[in-house]
Amino acid sequence: MEEKNLERIHVINEMLLELAVGNFYYRIERSSNNDEVEALIMTLNMFAEEMQNANIHQRILNSSKIPLDIAQMSFVLNQTSLIQMVNANASGILSYSNDTFIGKPFTSFLENESALKWDTVIKQFYEKNLFETSTQLKFKTKEGLSIPKTVYISLFQNLKGTENWLLLTVIHHSSYKEQLDLNLKGKINNKAINFPNSKKNNLKQKVKLSYEDIRKIRTGYDRIVNNVEMEFPSLREFALELGTNEFKLKYGFKALYGITVHRFLIQERLRKAQMLIQYSDDSIKSIAYAVGFKSMPHFSRVFKKMFNYTPSDLRNYHNIKDNKL
Known about the structure:
With about 325 residues, this protein is of the alpha+beta class. It folds into four domains: about 1-65; about 70-170, PAS domain (Beta-Lactamase); about 190-260, no CATH class; about 265-325, Arc Repressor Mutant, subunit A (Orthogonal Bundle), CATH 1.10.10. It is built from 13 helices and seven strands. The chain has helices at about 1-20, 35-60, 90-95, 100, 110-125, 175-185, 210-225, 235-240, 245-255, 260-280, 285-290, 295-305, 310-325; strands at about 70-75, 85, 130-140, 145-155, 165-170, 190-195, 205-210. The strands form two sheets. The chain has a five-stranded antiparallel beta sheet. It has a two-stranded antiparallel sheet with strand order 6-7. Helix 1 runs parallel beside helix 2 (about 35-60) and helix 7 (about 210-225) crosses helix 9. The protein is flat and about 55 Å long. About 20% of the residues are buried.
């Protein structure tokens, strides 16, 4: 038994190494054991799945109303790790003006130990020809405060296509997500997880979600993300398609993602529309229909409500910007 556990721990160690270099597609095959090691394996598998989804979706899904992992600070570095661009959040969090960052070494805003770690990480990144990876770093504010964060590193070509640059995304993990991860660390194999219902409704009843329920709800999440243009069925029919019931889908989705199914669908449609308006030449009307809206006035109204500008404003801005290049 001890030898078998050592083999399982070895597999866990391999997965951690894979996660460390940015391979969030790695999974450990489940066993029939019901112990702490198996609980850890389940947690790692679910963490990898969350990070895989985060890389694909959460950098774009950026509403402050969603208690999930959200992009907090972003840096663009050239090949020598000099900062070329930085977002406003980074300026606010680290208490420096935007101009202070531009042209400075990224390590100037890290603690000494993290600066040395960064040099090692980025050297290995280029030597191994990686496209994505992640690492833990400690930022230092203007006041000397230490801010430990996970940094996700992605390789891309600059606008001129002359050299490879780095996009650094710092993810903020909400307290709700952390609490959810703690819940998942329990022995949940074939057991239920209790999530409180919406406080708004003051319901005393609790939603009971098994791991299988969570998997089905995540399937629903992925189906929405990948099929925003389709006409979605009623919540009851959608739940039946996923193999669950309306009650678990409705409250389970809200518990896992902090947003209702319908509102998430609208947000994803608007997110895709925003990207198409910026990066395609399709008319705004055709884009609205392409992402599932049946009415232009309705599309324009909800778009402005979410982004604080109209679809036409966004298109005009990018047309002017492109003409200046």
